[in-house]
Amino acid sequence: MSVQSAAADVDVDLRQLFASLARNWLRILVVALVITGLAFALTWLATPHYRAETRLLIETRESVYTRPDGTNDNDKPILDEEGVTSQVEVISSTDILKQVAQKLNLSRLAEFDETADMPVLSRLLVIAGLKSDPNEIPPEERVLTKMREKLNVYRVEKSRVIVIEFSSENPRLAAEIPNAIADAYISVQGNANIESNSAATDWLAPEIADLSKRVKDAEAKVASYRAQSDLLMGGNNSVLATQQLSELSSELSRVRASRASAEATADSVRRALQNGGSLDAVPEVLSSELIQRLRERQVELKTNIADLSTSLLDNHPRIRALKSQLADLDRQIRNEAEKIMKGLMTQAQTAQARENQLVADVNTLKAASARAGDQQVELDALQREATAQRQLLESYLTRYREASSRKDSNYLPVDARVFSRAVAPSEPYFPKILPITGAAFVGSLLVMAIVSLLQELFSGRAMRPAAGARFERIEQVAMPVAREPSNCEPADIEDVEDRAAEAQAEPEAAAAAQATAPATGEDVEPARPTLGEVEIDRAVEKLITSAAARAIFVSPEGDEAAASAVLVAREVSDAGLRVLLLDLTASGAASRPMLDSGLFPGITNLLASEAQFSDVIHPDLYSDCHVIPVGTADPVRAMRAADRLPIIMQSLTTAYDLVVVECGPADAQGISRLVSEDTEVFLSLLEPDDEVAQAAVELIESGYPDLTLVTPVGHETPGTPVPGRRSAA
């Protein structure tokens, strides 16, 4: 449950606060110098530690001259960020660290194995059981644990560089160990490549033998099927039947063209002979040598006839003889043309016969070619299988030869190289005496300054009233002299009345005694009347032992007696219980001494629905007790919701161990809403008189026979003001 602090009415006096630093400068300086001296001594006596680092670069190390055929740099995958991080884990693995530890014989050094030179103090602690015995741990594990504590392997951000960092008390070891780890890592990677290469050759050898047998079987199947199917291969890697069909088709086309040409020529010669046309337009006729000679003779005769016609008549015997020879030549030319025509017809008939034969042969080869096509499909499938097996065999043979050559020559490059080896450091990285001493001095000064400021702040010397805060002056009541209390409680009404009568008679007896007393010069304390009331301590004891949840205080004498509720609440709170005081007086006589102000929201604000529980609960300035003051709301408006008091009391009882309610001069009816099963009712008094006795009688008669009278007289609590005398409304 959060509470509102009354410290809102005070401010921090910064001048007074920081003046404490000047007052305590000597203490601050002495403490700072002492701490600085201790820091200097510790750093001077501390064992120096040296640190060195080796850097690795992850890259492809295959040379262009040793790279396998058919591969290049792009074929080899480059490690990504996760791959480089994995190599970091490989470098710091147990196997590599074991190799380095054995190589450098680190188990003999006390730095890595405390059992090698255990101090006497450590031995005594082990014997006493205050420290675990390191001999119970295996030596290798002890060395590896120390190495991991001093080893730091990490990847440089946004690069493929791995840093191996190691610290040691010996500068030589600080450099040797990271170098040895880098060499061991490269050796392990090389061995891994050798193992991978050996595994590849061991696997390829039987695979190659098996593939050789399968290739041989596949090629035998191809040859056997080709022989069974009579698929003889011709030119251009084609089946013989298909090739023959192609040739016959070409021959058939040529024969058909020759036949058509002969028939056309013969037909033209025939038309020329039948129609008496010129035979000179027919190329076959002109190409005949006999016809050419006859044409030459014909031209010669026509020339002679023309020459003789100039001197002889047409009937001249010579001219007639020449004309007769010319007619014979024409008949011979026509006869020769007819022979040519007959030859062409014979040629056409021959071509027709050849064509018919070729057509028959082509049809036969078509059927054979169709069968050969189906068989060729099966043969191609067998050939593809044989080719695939052969190619796989050749690939395996190539890889096997490459792997065997690398294995024999022991050449398997590692994809990492050391580009920066560690060197023995000349200066330790720890301790840095000057920085540590300076930091200790500055830090101790700062801490001591803060401690001084906090002491000044918590002591209250640096606090002053806030501007505008108003505090009413609290009148102090001079309490009567303490006396031994009577531990009796009123049992019935008659007892209370008797004690009231005694109280009336006691002042007179006290006056008579004072008159008759000898004058000794000393003040004689008058006897105080009593009604059997108990003191604050007895009231607190009763509440704690009875485990009461509520304590109702009635103060018939007004505000003066409200101090009883305040003192009881503080005493119970100091006993360790959670206590809340609810002030139901009209003037705030109970809560004002606890808060030093009457301006806080309280029960009236809660009843008027102007505030929540967290707003009306405040801490007591002088104890751990919590307080709900009267508040600042309109009392008339708040009393309209008085029926909510039982609900509020129930909620407070749930949250606190004890709820103390100061009711002022209330009657039995007024406190009826506040009483529950676990409730103790107290009547607070300062001076027993008729008014107090009457109030006690009325409460007892109204159903509170266990009424307890309590008085604050004689109870002293440092720093606790008692409310002044006011008239409770």
Automatic annotation (TrEMBL):
The keyword Transmembrane helix applies. Residues 208-265, 291-399 form a coiled coil. Residues 498-526 are annotated as: Disordered. Its main location: membrane. It is found in: Cell membrane. Keywords: Cell membrane, Coiled coil, Membrane, Transmembrane, Transmembrane helix. The chain crosses the membrane at residues 25-46. This is Exopolysaccharide transport protein family. It comes from Mesorhizobium delmotii.
